[in-house]
Amino acid sequence: MEITDLTPAERRVRDAFPLGEGVDFRESDDEDPAQGASWGPGRTLRAEVLRELLLDGPVREGRIAGLKVTGARITGCLDLKYGTVGHPVRLRFCHFEEAPDLYGAQVVALVLSDSVLPGLTAGSLRAEGVVRITCCRVTGPVRLQGAKLAGAFFANGARLGRPGEVPEEPVLQLNHAEVGTDVWAPGLVAHGKVHLNGAVVRNQVNLNDAELNAPGDTALHAEVLTVGTDLHAMRLRTRGRVNLGGARIPRQLNLAYARLSNPGGRALRASSSVVGELWLREAAPIEGSVNLRRAQFDLLHVPPEVWPRQVQTDGLSYRVLTPHLPAEQRLPLLEGEPDGYLPQPYEQLTTAYRTVGDDAAARTVQLAKLRRHRRTLPPYARLWGYLQDAAVGYGFRPMRAAGWLLLLLCTGTLAFALHHPYALKPSEAPAFNPLFYTLDLLLPIIDFGQEAAFAPRGWYQWLSYLLIATGWVLATTIAAGVTRSLNRQ
Question: Is the overall model pTM greater than 0.70, yes or no?
Protein backbone atom coordinates (compact mmCIF):
# COMPACT_ATOMS: atom_id res chain seq x y z
CA MET A 1 0.00 0.00 0.00
CA GLU A 2 1.36 3.42 -0.97
CA ILE A 3 1.92 5.96 1.79
CA THR A 4 -0.21 8.45 -0.13
CA ASP A 5 -3.21 6.15 0.25
CA LEU A 6 -3.38 6.66 4.01
CA THR A 7 -6.04 8.80 5.60
CA PRO A 8 -5.10 11.27 8.34
CA ALA A 9 -6.38 8.82 10.98
CA GLU A 10 -4.31 6.01 9.52
CA ARG A 11 -1.21 8.25 9.38
CA ARG A 12 -1.60 8.89 13.13
CA VAL A 13 -1.62 5.16 13.76
CA ARG A 14 1.27 4.58 11.32
CA ASP A 15 3.41 7.21 13.08
CA ALA A 16 2.64 5.92 16.57
CA PHE A 17 3.24 2.25 15.71
CA PRO A 18 7.09 2.16 15.69
CA LEU A 19 7.16 4.10 18.96
CA GLY A 20 4.71 1.75 20.66
CA GLU A 21 2.54 4.75 21.51
CA GLY A 22 -1.25 4.72 21.73
CA VAL A 23 -3.75 6.62 19.60
CA ASP A 24 -7.07 7.49 21.25
CA PHE A 25 -9.82 8.62 18.87
CA ARG A 26 -12.50 8.97 21.53
CA GLU A 27 -14.20 12.27 22.09
CA SER A 28 -15.27 11.28 25.62
CA ASP A 29 -14.62 8.41 28.01
CA ASP A 30 -18.24 7.30 28.08
CA GLU A 31 -18.65 6.68 24.36
CA ASP A 32 -20.44 3.49 23.34
CA PRO A 33 -18.58 1.47 20.66
CA ALA A 34 -21.94 0.01 19.62
CA GLN A 35 -22.56 3.36 17.89
CA GLY A 36 -19.28 3.02 15.99
CA ALA A 37 -20.98 2.47 12.61
CA SER A 38 -21.75 6.21 12.58
CA TRP A 39 -18.18 7.30 13.29
CA GLY A 40 -16.75 9.30 10.42
CA PRO A 41 -13.47 9.18 8.44
CA GLY A 42 -11.62 10.98 11.21
CA ARG A 43 -11.66 7.82 13.31
CA THR A 44 -12.03 5.11 10.69
CA LEU A 45 -9.21 2.64 9.99
CA ARG A 46 -9.08 0.11 7.20
CA ALA A 47 -8.27 -3.42 8.34
CA GLU A 48 -5.75 -3.89 5.50
CA VAL A 49 -3.73 -0.91 6.79
CA LEU A 50 -3.55 -2.46 10.25
CA ARG A 51 -2.58 -5.80 8.70
CA GLU A 52 0.35 -4.23 6.83
CA LEU A 53 1.55 -2.49 9.98
CA LEU A 54 1.40 -5.69 12.05
CA LEU A 55 3.11 -7.92 9.47
CA ASP A 56 5.60 -5.47 7.96
CA GLY A 57 5.35 -2.16 9.75
CA PRO A 58 8.24 0.22 10.50
CA VAL A 59 10.24 -0.24 13.68
CA ARG A 60 12.63 2.13 15.44
CA GLU A 61 15.78 1.07 17.19
CA GLY A 62 15.50 1.27 20.94
CA ARG A 63 11.70 1.30 20.90
CA ILE A 64 9.16 -1.53 21.12
CA ALA A 65 6.66 -1.24 18.30
CA GLY A 66 3.02 -2.03 18.89
CA LEU A 67 -0.48 -1.38 17.64
CA LYS A 68 -2.36 0.50 20.37
CA VAL A 69 -5.62 2.04 19.16
CA THR A 70 -8.62 3.17 21.20
CA GLY A 71 -12.05 4.21 19.94
CA ALA A 72 -11.69 3.51 16.21
CA ARG A 73 -14.05 2.15 13.60
CA ILE A 74 -12.34 -0.68 11.74
CA THR A 75 -13.69 -1.53 8.31
CA GLY A 76 -13.00 -4.69 6.38
CA CYS A 77 -11.64 -7.97 7.76
CA LEU A 78 -8.45 -7.88 9.82
CA ASP A 79 -7.00 -10.98 8.17
CA LEU A 80 -3.93 -12.29 10.01
CA LYS A 81 -4.55 -15.94 9.23
CA TYR A 82 -1.34 -17.98 9.75
CA GLY A 83 0.58 -14.73 10.16
CA THR A 84 3.36 -14.06 12.65
CA VAL A 85 2.89 -10.82 14.55
CA GLY A 86 5.87 -9.83 16.64
CA HIS A 87 4.17 -6.86 18.24
CA PRO A 88 1.36 -6.54 20.81
CA VAL A 89 -2.09 -5.87 19.37
CA ARG A 90 -4.30 -3.60 21.44
CA LEU A 91 -7.58 -2.44 19.89
CA ARG A 92 -9.78 -1.16 22.73
CA PHE A 93 -13.23 0.45 22.55
CA CYS A 94 -13.21 -0.23 18.81
CA HIS A 95 -16.09 -1.04 16.49
CA PHE A 96 -15.34 -3.88 14.05
CA GLU A 97 -17.53 -4.15 10.98
CA GLU A 98 -16.23 -7.67 10.23
CA ALA A 99 -14.92 -10.45 12.43
CA PRO A 100 -11.11 -10.51 12.69
CA ASP A 101 -9.50 -13.69 11.39
CA LEU A 102 -6.42 -14.84 13.31
CA TYR A 103 -6.74 -18.56 12.62
CA GLY A 104 -3.34 -20.21 13.12
CA ALA A 105 -1.66 -16.86 13.78
CA GLN A 106 1.18 -16.24 16.22
CA VAL A 107 0.91 -13.10 18.32
CA VAL A 108 2.64 -11.56 21.31
CA ALA A 109 -0.62 -10.44 22.93
CA LEU A 110 -4.15 -9.71 21.75
CA VAL A 111 -6.29 -7.15 23.59
CA LEU A 112 -9.75 -6.31 22.28
CA SER A 113 -11.27 -5.08 25.54
CA ASP A 114 -14.52 -3.06 25.49
CA SER A 115 -14.87 -3.47 21.72
CA VAL A 116 -17.89 -4.47 19.66
CA LEU A 117 -17.38 -7.28 17.15
CA PRO A 118 -19.54 -9.50 14.93
CA GLY A 119 -17.29 -12.45 15.89
CA LEU A 120 -13.69 -13.56 16.31
CA THR A 121 -11.95 -16.39 14.51
CA ALA A 122 -8.75 -17.40 16.29
CA GLY A 123 -8.68 -21.18 16.26
CA SER A 124 -5.20 -22.67 16.77
CA LEU A 125 -3.94 -19.21 17.77
CA ARG A 126 -0.52 -19.10 19.44
CA ALA A 127 -0.10 -16.26 21.94
CA GLU A 128 3.00 -15.53 24.00
CA GLY A 129 0.97 -13.40 26.41
CA VAL A 130 -2.67 -12.77 27.23
CA VAL A 131 -5.79 -12.72 25.09
CA ARG A 132 -8.43 -10.28 26.32
CA ILE A 133 -12.03 -9.82 25.27
CA THR A 134 -12.89 -8.13 28.57
CA CYS A 135 -16.26 -6.32 28.42
CA CYS A 136 -16.51 -6.96 24.67
CA ARG A 137 -19.87 -7.34 22.97
CA VAL A 138 -19.64 -10.06 20.37
CA THR A 139 -22.74 -11.07 18.46
CA GLY A 140 -21.15 -13.98 16.62
CA PRO A 141 -18.97 -16.91 17.74
CA VAL A 142 -15.62 -16.45 19.48
CA ARG A 143 -13.55 -19.31 18.05
CA LEU A 144 -10.45 -20.18 20.08
CA GLN A 145 -10.57 -23.95 19.75
CA GLY A 146 -7.13 -25.53 19.87
CA ALA A 147 -5.48 -22.23 20.85
CA LYS A 148 -2.28 -22.29 22.89
CA LEU A 149 -1.96 -19.29 25.18
CA ALA A 150 1.13 -18.83 27.32
CA GLY A 151 -0.75 -16.29 29.43
CA ALA A 152 -4.35 -15.98 30.53
CA PHE A 153 -7.63 -15.65 28.67
CA PHE A 154 -9.78 -12.80 29.97
CA ALA A 155 -13.50 -12.57 29.19
CA ASN A 156 -14.73 -10.87 32.34
CA GLY A 157 -17.84 -8.83 31.75
CA ALA A 158 -18.06 -9.90 28.09
CA ARG A 159 -21.45 -10.20 26.36
CA LEU A 160 -21.60 -12.98 23.79
CA GLY A 161 -24.41 -13.79 21.37
CA ARG A 162 -27.81 -12.18 20.98
CA PRO A 163 -30.34 -12.14 23.84
CA GLY A 164 -33.17 -14.60 23.31
CA GLU A 165 -31.26 -16.65 20.72
CA VAL A 166 -29.39 -19.95 21.02
CA PRO A 167 -27.34 -20.30 17.84
CA GLU A 168 -26.30 -23.71 16.58
CA GLU A 169 -22.63 -22.81 16.87
CA PRO A 170 -21.26 -22.19 20.39
CA VAL A 171 -20.73 -18.52 21.17
CA LEU A 172 -17.44 -19.25 23.00
CA GLN A 173 -15.21 -22.08 21.81
CA LEU A 174 -12.21 -22.94 23.97
CA ASN A 175 -12.42 -26.68 23.40
CA HIS A 176 -9.02 -28.39 23.33
CA ALA A 177 -7.31 -25.08 24.08
CA GLU A 178 -4.26 -24.85 26.36
CA VAL A 179 -4.12 -21.85 28.68
CA GLY A 180 -0.88 -21.22 30.56
CA THR A 181 -2.49 -19.53 33.58
CA ASP A 182 -6.19 -18.67 34.02
CA VAL A 183 -9.48 -18.52 32.19
CA TRP A 184 -10.84 -15.40 33.86
CA ALA A 185 -14.49 -14.70 33.05
CA PRO A 186 -16.43 -13.40 36.07
CA GLY A 187 -19.59 -11.63 34.98
CA LEU A 188 -19.56 -13.25 31.53
CA VAL A 189 -22.99 -13.31 29.85
CA ALA A 190 -23.40 -15.85 27.06
CA HIS A 191 -26.54 -16.26 24.99
CA GLY A 192 -25.61 -19.62 23.54
CA LYS A 193 -23.35 -22.55 24.28
CA VAL A 194 -19.92 -22.24 25.92
CA HIS A 195 -17.44 -25.00 25.07
CA LEU A 196 -14.45 -25.88 27.24
CA ASN A 197 -14.39 -29.60 26.59
CA GLY A 198 -10.91 -31.08 26.46
CA ALA A 199 -9.33 -27.75 27.47
CA VAL A 200 -6.28 -27.63 29.74
CA VAL A 201 -6.05 -24.64 32.10
CA ARG A 202 -2.86 -24.62 34.15
CA ASN A 203 -4.26 -22.57 37.02
CA GLN A 204 -7.95 -21.78 37.56
CA VAL A 205 -11.21 -21.10 35.77
CA ASN A 206 -13.26 -18.22 37.17
CA LEU A 207 -16.94 -18.00 36.22
CA ASN A 208 -18.16 -16.12 39.28
CA ASP A 209 -21.38 -14.21 38.59
CA ALA A 210 -21.49 -15.54 35.02
CA GLU A 211 -24.78 -16.07 33.22
CA LEU A 212 -24.93 -18.85 30.62
CA ASN A 213 -28.13 -19.18 28.61
CA ALA A 214 -28.87 -22.13 26.35
CA PRO A 215 -32.35 -23.37 27.32
CA GLY A 216 -32.90 -26.98 26.29
CA ASP A 217 -29.25 -27.33 25.25
CA THR A 218 -25.81 -27.46 26.88
CA ALA A 219 -25.02 -24.10 28.41
CA LEU A 220 -21.54 -25.17 29.56
CA HIS A 221 -19.87 -28.08 27.82
CA ALA A 222 -16.67 -28.85 29.74
CA GLU A 223 -16.18 -32.59 29.37
CA VAL A 224 -12.67 -33.81 30.23
CA LEU A 225 -11.70 -30.27 31.25
CA THR A 226 -8.41 -30.27 33.15
CA VAL A 227 -7.84 -27.47 35.65
CA GLY A 228 -4.65 -26.95 37.64
CA THR A 229 -6.35 -25.70 40.81
CA ASP A 230 -9.98 -24.52 41.05
CA LEU A 231 -13.12 -23.87 39.07
CA HIS A 232 -14.86 -20.97 40.78
CA ALA A 233 -18.47 -20.41 39.72
CA MET A 234 -20.05 -18.69 42.69
CA ARG A 235 -23.43 -17.17 41.85
CA LEU A 236 -23.30 -18.81 38.42
CA ARG A 237 -26.67 -18.79 36.67
CA THR A 238 -27.33 -21.30 33.95
CA ARG A 239 -30.32 -22.05 31.77
CA GLY A 240 -29.42 -25.34 30.16
CA ARG A 241 -27.18 -28.29 30.91
CA VAL A 242 -23.83 -28.02 32.70
CA ASN A 243 -21.65 -30.90 31.51
CA LEU A 244 -18.49 -31.56 33.54
CA GLY A 245 -18.23 -35.25 32.75
CA GLY A 246 -14.69 -36.56 33.19
CA ALA A 247 -13.36 -33.20 34.40
CA ARG A 248 -10.23 -33.06 36.58
CA ILE A 249 -10.35 -30.31 39.22
CA PRO A 250 -7.89 -31.08 42.02
CA ARG A 251 -9.08 -28.43 44.47
CA GLN A 252 -12.48 -26.70 44.49
CA LEU A 253 -15.47 -26.81 42.20
CA ASN A 254 -17.23 -23.92 43.90
CA LEU A 255 -20.88 -23.49 42.93
CA ALA A 256 -21.92 -21.65 46.07
CA TYR A 257 -25.03 -19.49 45.60
CA ALA A 258 -25.37 -20.85 42.05
CA ARG A 259 -28.67 -21.30 40.24
CA LEU A 260 -28.65 -24.28 37.86
CA SER A 261 -31.78 -24.72 35.80
CA ASN A 262 -32.74 -27.12 33.03
CA PRO A 263 -36.32 -28.21 33.82
CA GLY A 264 -37.24 -31.56 32.34
CA GLY A 265 -33.63 -32.38 31.45
CA ARG A 266 -30.17 -32.81 32.91
CA ALA A 267 -29.10 -29.75 34.91
CA LEU A 268 -25.68 -31.01 36.01
CA ARG A 269 -23.54 -33.87 34.77
CA ALA A 270 -20.27 -34.59 36.57
CA SER A 271 -20.03 -38.35 35.99
CA SER A 272 -16.53 -39.86 36.05
CA SER A 273 -15.09 -36.53 37.19
CA VAL A 274 -12.36 -36.27 39.83
CA VAL A 275 -12.77 -33.21 42.05
CA GLY A 276 -11.21 -32.23 45.35
CA GLU A 277 -14.19 -30.39 46.84
CA LEU A 278 -17.67 -29.69 45.48
CA TRP A 279 -19.37 -26.71 47.09
CA LEU A 280 -23.06 -25.96 46.57
CA ARG A 281 -23.46 -23.93 49.76
CA GLU A 282 -26.50 -21.61 49.74
CA ALA A 283 -27.25 -22.64 46.15
CA ALA A 284 -30.80 -22.58 44.85
CA PRO A 285 -32.55 -25.97 44.49
CA ILE A 286 -31.36 -27.48 41.22
CA GLU A 287 -34.05 -27.57 38.53
CA GLY A 288 -33.48 -30.74 36.52
CA SER A 289 -31.74 -34.03 37.17
CA VAL A 290 -28.12 -34.59 38.27
CA ASN A 291 -25.69 -37.31 37.17
CA LEU A 292 -22.79 -38.02 39.57
CA ARG A 293 -22.12 -41.61 38.56
CA ARG A 294 -18.54 -42.80 39.14
CA ALA A 295 -17.48 -39.31 40.24
CA GLN A 296 -14.83 -38.96 42.94
CA PHE A 297 -14.84 -36.22 45.56
CA ASP A 298 -12.80 -35.68 48.68
CA LEU A 299 -15.46 -33.40 50.18
CA LEU A 300 -19.09 -32.69 49.32
CA HIS A 301 -20.55 -29.53 50.81
CA VAL A 302 -24.12 -29.78 49.58
CA PRO A 303 -27.20 -29.13 51.74
CA PRO A 304 -29.89 -31.78 51.10
CA GLU A 305 -32.44 -29.21 49.92
CA VAL A 306 -30.24 -28.31 46.93
CA TRP A 307 -30.54 -31.74 45.32
CA PRO A 308 -33.38 -32.35 42.84
CA ARG A 309 -35.65 -35.40 43.02
CA GLN A 310 -33.52 -37.41 40.57
CA VAL A 311 -29.81 -37.81 41.30
CA GLN A 312 -27.78 -40.67 39.82
CA THR A 313 -25.22 -41.72 42.44
CA ASP A 314 -24.15 -45.24 41.47
CA GLY A 315 -20.37 -45.45 41.83
CA LEU A 316 -20.13 -42.00 43.44
CA SER A 317 -17.36 -41.88 46.04
CA TYR A 318 -16.53 -39.23 48.62
CA ARG A 319 -14.72 -39.05 51.94
CA VAL A 320 -16.47 -36.31 53.89
CA LEU A 321 -19.99 -34.81 53.77
CA THR A 322 -20.57 -31.32 55.10
CA PRO A 323 -22.49 -29.94 56.82
CA HIS A 324 -22.76 -32.90 59.18
CA LEU A 325 -26.44 -33.82 59.33
CA PRO A 326 -28.51 -36.73 60.66
CA ALA A 327 -28.73 -39.66 58.29
CA GLU A 328 -32.48 -39.15 57.90
CA GLN A 329 -31.78 -35.91 56.02
CA ARG A 330 -29.32 -37.53 53.63
CA LEU A 331 -31.29 -40.68 52.78
CA PRO A 332 -33.87 -39.05 50.46
CA LEU A 333 -31.04 -38.41 47.98
CA LEU A 334 -30.52 -42.18 47.64
CA GLU A 335 -34.24 -42.78 47.29
CA GLY A 336 -34.21 -40.56 44.20
CA GLU A 337 -31.98 -42.93 42.21
CA PRO A 338 -33.92 -43.39 38.93
CA ASP A 339 -32.61 -46.93 38.45
CA GLY A 340 -34.13 -48.11 41.70
CA TYR A 341 -32.30 -49.83 44.52
CA LEU A 342 -28.50 -49.81 44.23
CA PRO A 343 -26.43 -50.96 47.22
CA GLN A 344 -23.25 -48.95 46.56
CA PRO A 345 -24.65 -45.48 47.39
CA TYR A 346 -25.81 -46.75 50.79
CA GLU A 347 -22.42 -48.31 51.50
CA GLN A 348 -20.69 -45.05 50.53
CA LEU A 349 -22.90 -42.99 52.82
CA THR A 350 -22.28 -45.47 55.63
CA THR A 351 -18.52 -45.15 55.12
CA ALA A 352 -18.73 -41.35 55.22
CA TYR A 353 -20.51 -41.42 58.58
CA ARG A 354 -18.04 -43.91 60.01
CA THR A 355 -15.16 -41.73 58.79
CA VAL A 356 -16.34 -38.96 61.12
CA GLY A 357 -17.15 -41.41 63.92
CA ASP A 358 -20.96 -41.25 63.72
CA ASP A 359 -21.75 -44.96 64.12
CA ALA A 360 -25.40 -44.32 64.98
CA ALA A 361 -25.96 -42.58 61.64
CA ALA A 362 -24.07 -45.37 59.87
CA ARG A 363 -26.42 -47.95 61.39
CA THR A 364 -29.42 -45.87 60.32
CA VAL A 365 -28.16 -45.91 56.73
CA GLN A 366 -27.61 -49.66 56.80
CA LEU A 367 -31.11 -50.21 58.14
CA ALA A 368 -32.52 -48.00 55.37
CA LYS A 369 -30.53 -50.02 52.83
CA LEU A 370 -32.07 -53.30 54.00
CA ARG A 371 -35.56 -51.82 54.01
CA ARG A 372 -35.04 -50.45 50.48
CA HIS A 373 -33.70 -53.83 49.34
CA ARG A 374 -36.74 -55.55 50.87
CA ARG A 375 -39.00 -53.89 48.28
CA THR A 376 -37.21 -55.80 45.53
CA LEU A 377 -37.75 -59.25 47.13
CA PRO A 378 -40.56 -61.79 46.51
CA PRO A 379 -43.48 -61.76 48.99
CA TYR A 380 -42.25 -64.60 51.22
CA ALA A 381 -38.83 -62.96 51.59
CA ARG A 382 -40.44 -59.59 52.31
CA LEU A 383 -42.49 -61.20 55.10
CA TRP A 384 -39.34 -62.56 56.77
CA GLY A 385 -37.76 -59.14 56.35
CA TYR A 386 -40.70 -57.43 58.05
CA LEU A 387 -40.37 -59.86 60.98
CA GLN A 388 -36.66 -59.12 61.37
CA ASP A 389 -37.28 -55.40 61.04
CA ALA A 390 -40.06 -55.37 63.62
CA ALA A 391 -38.10 -57.59 65.99
CA VAL A 392 -34.65 -55.98 66.06
CA GLY A 393 -34.41 -53.66 63.05
CA TYR A 394 -32.36 -56.23 61.10
CA GLY A 395 -29.94 -56.37 64.04
CA PHE A 396 -29.24 -52.63 63.98
CA ARG A 397 -31.74 -51.98 66.79
CA PRO A 398 -30.74 -54.65 69.39
CA MET A 399 -32.50 -52.92 72.28
CA ARG A 400 -35.77 -53.52 70.47
CA ALA A 401 -35.24 -57.27 71.00
CA ALA A 402 -34.93 -56.73 74.74
CA GLY A 403 -38.26 -54.92 74.70
CA TRP A 404 -39.96 -57.73 72.79
CA LEU A 405 -38.46 -60.36 75.11
CA LEU A 406 -39.59 -58.47 78.18
CA LEU A 407 -43.12 -58.06 76.80
CA LEU A 408 -43.38 -61.76 75.87
CA LEU A 409 -41.87 -62.81 79.18
CA CYS A 410 -44.41 -60.80 81.14
CA THR A 411 -47.28 -62.07 78.98
CA GLY A 412 -46.26 -65.72 79.32
CA THR A 413 -45.52 -65.47 83.04
CA LEU A 414 -48.90 -63.89 83.78
CA ALA A 415 -50.81 -66.35 81.59
CA PHE A 416 -49.18 -69.47 83.02
CA ALA A 417 -49.36 -68.15 86.58
CA LEU A 418 -53.15 -67.91 86.20
CA HIS A 419 -53.45 -71.34 84.58
CA HIS A 420 -50.73 -73.86 85.33
CA PRO A 421 -50.05 -76.43 82.59
CA TYR A 422 -50.45 -79.99 83.72
CA ALA A 423 -47.40 -82.11 84.65
CA LEU A 424 -46.50 -84.90 82.24
CA LYS A 425 -45.12 -87.05 85.12
CA PRO A 426 -46.49 -85.65 88.35
CA SER A 427 -44.26 -87.80 90.53
CA GLU A 428 -41.08 -86.59 88.83
CA ALA A 429 -41.98 -83.03 87.84
CA PRO A 430 -40.31 -80.11 89.66
CA ALA A 431 -42.35 -77.35 91.20
CA PHE A 432 -43.93 -75.24 88.46
CA ASN A 433 -42.48 -71.76 88.02
CA PRO A 434 -44.29 -69.61 85.39
CA LEU A 435 -41.29 -67.28 84.93
CA PHE A 436 -38.75 -70.02 84.18
CA TYR A 437 -41.30 -71.99 82.18
CA THR A 438 -41.76 -68.95 79.90
CA LEU A 439 -37.97 -68.52 79.66
CA ASP A 440 -37.66 -72.16 78.62
CA LEU A 441 -40.14 -71.54 75.80
CA LEU A 442 -38.60 -68.26 74.65
CA LEU A 443 -34.89 -69.11 74.73
CA PRO A 444 -34.09 -72.21 72.68
CA ILE A 445 -30.54 -72.61 74.02
CA ILE A 446 -31.57 -72.47 77.72
CA ASP A 447 -33.17 -75.40 79.57
CA PHE A 448 -34.50 -74.97 83.11
CA GLY A 449 -36.31 -78.31 82.95
CA GLN A 450 -39.74 -76.68 82.95
CA GLU A 451 -40.71 -77.07 79.30
CA ALA A 452 -40.06 -80.84 79.26
CA ALA A 453 -42.01 -81.38 82.49
CA PHE A 454 -45.23 -79.52 81.77
CA ALA A 455 -47.64 -79.33 78.83
CA PRO A 456 -50.29 -76.64 78.43
CA ARG A 457 -53.71 -77.28 76.92
CA GLY A 458 -56.19 -75.39 74.81
CA TRP A 459 -55.29 -71.88 73.80
CA TYR A 460 -52.39 -71.94 76.32
CA GLN A 461 -50.81 -74.54 74.09
CA TRP A 462 -51.07 -72.10 71.17
CA LEU A 463 -49.51 -69.42 73.37
CA SER A 464 -46.58 -71.74 74.04
CA TYR A 465 -46.15 -72.31 70.30
CA LEU A 466 -46.14 -68.53 69.72
CA LEU A 467 -43.51 -68.04 72.40
CA ILE A 468 -41.31 -70.76 70.91
CA ALA A 469 -41.61 -69.33 67.36
CA THR A 470 -40.98 -65.73 68.38
CA GLY A 471 -38.08 -66.88 70.53
CA TRP A 472 -36.45 -68.46 67.50
CA VAL A 473 -37.03 -65.32 65.40
CA LEU A 474 -35.52 -63.11 68.08
CA ALA A 475 -32.57 -65.43 68.57
CA THR A 476 -31.87 -65.55 64.82
CA THR A 477 -32.07 -61.80 64.33
CA ILE A 478 -29.96 -61.07 67.41
CA ALA A 479 -27.32 -63.45 66.11
CA ALA A 480 -27.42 -61.65 62.74
CA GLY A 481 -26.99 -58.32 64.49
CA VAL A 482 -24.04 -59.56 66.55
CA THR A 483 -22.43 -60.93 63.38
CA ARG A 484 -22.81 -57.55 61.61
CA SER A 485 -21.33 -55.76 64.61
CA LEU A 486 -18.33 -58.08 64.67
CA ASN A 487 -17.84 -57.67 60.91
CA ARG A 488 -17.88 -53.86 61.27
CA GLN A 489 -15.20 -54.12 63.92
Answer: yes
